[in-house]
Amino acid sequence: MVAGTETAFVASSATTRARVRIGSRDEVERLPRWRNAFAAERKDRRYYELVEDTLRDGFVFRYLVVEDGDEVRAIQPCFVVDQDLVTGSGGAVRRIVGPIRRLWPRFMFARTLMVGCAAGEGHLDGDESARAEIAEALARSLNGIGRELRCAMVVLKEFPVKYRPPLNCLPKFGFARIPSMPMTTLGIAYKNFDAYLSASLSAATRGKVRRKLRAAERAKPAISMSVVEDVTPYVDDVHPLYLKVYERSPLQFEKLTKEFLCQIGVRMPDKVRFFLWRQDEKIIAFGLCTLEGKNICHEYVGFDYAVAFELNLYYRVFHDIIEWAIANGYERFYSGSLNYDPKWHLRQSLYPVDLYVRHTSGLVNALFRRLLPLLEPTRSDPILPNFSNYREMWE
């Protein structure tokens, strides 16, 4: 099935009879429902359009339209990608898979229908009161849609913990829930950064953080920070810093382009801020943050590693973003996945995000669900169990 065909999948139950079909980008842009899709999230429908327009490498983007009669109940973005099933698995799994791939390069790769966002966590569209019905309609339809798209796997990608109640129907339809690498979060309803240190961290950790910040303050030339909505004038300096962080990451999925960085501030000026750190005129670090209500999320970062460790740029970036956020009335800070050691020491909490996974073959799925605990990525990270709310990833 391709965008624009009449093939659809009907999900019926005692409470809903909904049709789920694939719509094209041109079609959904004409639907009134799309204009307000995800409006209450940091990443509203403009973000999904941006991702489709600027992150084309390896992704085939689609939209699932959930209809009840003539009413469009929800529009759920999705995409097809060739997925490495052992991405994020521990060393033992990789040692087994590596030799096999020398003989069979496609071993443990699968064409996969991903429901959600190609660059960040996913969200359910639709009115909150109807999310359980919408989730059941998707659950009943996704396996058939995956088969029509010639996908071996169907995955709901990185849905935050708040969606567990409506998505609780998925296991009935063969999906298994496993944790993805979690985000982190921190309450920042303090007078300033120093008040946060005093209230949240031990004396030893406070001393360590302050020493690192003093080292950054003593830098010559001095480090300065500025905040802009549009990074286009600086993108030639910023994008290489992002790539340096991306290339060092043990887990890689989306790879941001210059076009993405330029367009996000232009298209979403109300929800995006870029933080730039300079020595003289040279940009040595940047952070991309998204905003919604009282929440700020540090999405992406870039460092000049020639000076990053000497100047403790990680701590300087964290300090300056928190100071700016507090001064501008934000009360909760979120951060992306990975690099958990400093986040644990800074007393951030885990913000779980889940994967809901199944194979489109019922027979294979019965075996695959038993293998998932070996493939899920969080077990290979030694720091995660130290977080006080680690069990929330599994509960």
How would you summarize the topology of this molecule?
Blueprint: E1 8-12, E2 17-23, H1 25-29, H2 32-35, H3 45-54, E3 60-68, E4 71-84, H4 91-103, E5 109-115, H5 131-148, E6 153-160, H6 164-167, E7 176-179, E8 183-187, H7 193-200, H8 203-217, E9 223-228, H9 235-248, H10 258-267, E10 272-279, E11 282-292, E12 295-303, H11 313-327, E13 332-335, H12 340-345, E14 349-351, E15 353-359, H13 362-375
Parallel strand pairs: 5-6, 12-13
Antiparallel strand pairs: 1-2, 2-3, 3-4, 4-5, 6-15, 7-15, 8-13, 8-14, 9-10, 10-11, 11-12
Features:
395 residues, alpha+beta, 2 domains, eight-stranded mixed beta sheet, seven-stranded mixed beta sheet, 34% helix, globular, disordered N terminus
Describe this structure in words.
There is one protein chain. This protein has helices at 25-29, 32-35, 45-54, 91-103, 131-148, 164-167, 193-200, 203-217, 235-248, 258-267, 313-327, 340-345, 362-375; strands at residues 8-12, 17-23, 60-68, 71-84, 109-115, 153-160, 176-179, 183-187, 223-228, 272-279, 282-292, 295-303, 332-335, 349-351, 353-359. It folds into 2 domains: 8-182 and 352-393, Aminopeptidase; 184-350, Aminopeptidase, CATH 3.40.630. It has an 8-stranded mixed sheet with strand order 1-2-3-4-5-6-15-7. It has a 7-stranded mixed sheet with strand order 9-10-11-12-13-8-14. The chain is globular and about 65 Å long. Helices cover 34% and strands 27% of the residues. α3 runs antiparallel to α10 and α8 crosses α11. Mean pLDDT is 89; it is low at 1-6. It is of the alpha+beta class. β3 (60-68) and β4 form a beta hairpin.
